[in-house]
Write a structure and sequence with these properties.
2 domains, Rossmann fold, alpha/beta, 387 residues, DNA polymerase, domain 1
């Protein structure tokens, strides 16, 4: 008999609260969390566009409103059966190849009888390797905000001591409380999204094939990218693309979006990709599609990815036992910068990696998406209270 289970608690109710903020004092930097929450921002004349050569840092308040959302501890079947069934029906199993499996096991060091959290289960690749080492007396708690990913992982993790939970990793503390776990021996968070999600044109995460401009990793929550694209004004859109996509031509793209949407709606990935390509010249000898940065920016905003990461990093010290380990794999500088800063807290963490670990040349040849992956690991230090 298998050990695979999933939670069955009802979602907790929570009230939505608006962020009090003076329009007169709002700057373009202040407007980002309000954009994320769908709140009004200051008039264009009161907030300048970002300077292209200026580095932007420190958005710890990003997605503050999203932190108030309910804890989603649905069972996979109750969360979004149609979305799950659709993605599962695409193929007999996950296509995604987990990055740096050997390095993950080396730095996470799972042992028999431990409780380990896989904060982003995806197709279950990392989770299976870890669960096999925990043995029948151990337990792996696997989270994913995408119910379809949990369904893909289910057969991969069958007969292993695994509990699957439909939740974003920023709800880790609530998940552990619901599972009656005070702290885990180790936590892994792979911040990349799955090849299986990319392969589904209905998700709108890729411009390689036409599909609706959705981009939500959890189709049961939030607004699609098309709605965000039509809600923001030119200044807000330019700020978003610049901050989250690090796109230097963000103002040009935003201006063109506003022009186009006066006569028609931008509803598909193909429409947006062609629009951006018309604004951003492709560099000679550069393999990256000009639309890549804009798509990244919208995906980050739609899913509040950086806000969720910051909330995870804040909660992590109380979720890992002293002597336990945390391993995080990031895929772009906006993520890696935050992880690096969090693990620099010498009162809380002892770094296990002086520099980020990257995939070997052989792995990159076999799995090109591993090229961008950066792994950082740290050990939870004992509390110094009363020392």
């Amino acid at each position: 008999m298998g050990h695979l289970t999933n939670t069955d608690e009802e979602p907790l109710a929570t009230a939505r609260r608006k962020q009090p903020q003076s329009e007169e004092s709002e700057t373009w930097m202040d407007s980002i969390p309000r954009i994320q929450a769908g709140l009004p921002t200051a008039p264009d004349s009161q907030a300048d566009l970002p300077a292209p050569d200026r580095e932007v840092r420190g958005f710890s308040s990003l997605g503050l409103a999203a932190a108030l959302r309910a804890v989603r501890l649905y069972s996979v079947e109750r969360a979004a059966p149609r979305a799950a069934a659709k993605l599962v029906g695409m193929s007999p199993g996950p296509h995604h190849v987990s990055v740096m499996p050997r390095e993950v096991l080396e730095y996470l060091a799972p042992e028999a009888g431990q409780i380990v959290v896989e904060a982003t289960v995806g197709g279950g690749g990392h989770a299976r390797l870890i669960a096999e080492r925990l043995g029948p007396t151990g337990r792996l708690i696997g989270l994913d905000q995408d119910p379809a990913m949990l369904e893909l992982a289910r057969p991969v993790l069958d007969c292993l001591p695994v509990t699957l939970v439909h939740a974003n990793f920023d709800q880790l503390r609530h998940v552990l409380d619901a599972q009656r776990v005070s702290a885990a021996d180790a936590v892994l968070a792979d911040l990349g999204f799955s090849s299986d999600q990319l392969a589904d044109p209905e998700r709108g995460l890729s411009f390689q094939q036409p599909g609706p401009l959705d981009m939500r990793l959890d189709p049961t929550q939030g607004e699609p990218a098309s709605a965000l694209l039509h809600r923001l004004n030119e200044r807000e859109l330019a700020n978003l693309i610049y901050l989250y996509g690090e796109e230097r031509l963000s103002r040009r793209i935003a201006r063109r979006v506003i022009e186009v949407r006066r006569t028609s709606r931008i509803e598909t990935t193909e429409q947006l990709a062609e629009l951006v390509r018309g604004c951003v010249p492709r560099s000679r000898g550069h393999a990256i599609d000009p639309a890549t940065r804009t798509f990244q920016a919208l995906r980050i905003a739609v899913n509040d990815e950086l806000g969720a990461l910051e909330r995870l990093l804040t909660a992590l010290p109380c979720c890992v036992k002293p002597g336990g380990r945390a391993v995080i794999i990031s895929f772009h500088s906006l993520e890696d910068r935050r992880v690096k800063q969090a693990f620099r807290d010498k009162q809380t963490w002892g770094a296990l990696t002086r520099k980020p670990i990257q995939a070997s040349e052989e792995e990159v040849r076999n799995n090109p998406r591993a090229r961008s992956a950066k792994l950082r690991a740290a050990i939870r230090l004992p509390s110094r209270e009363g020392a």
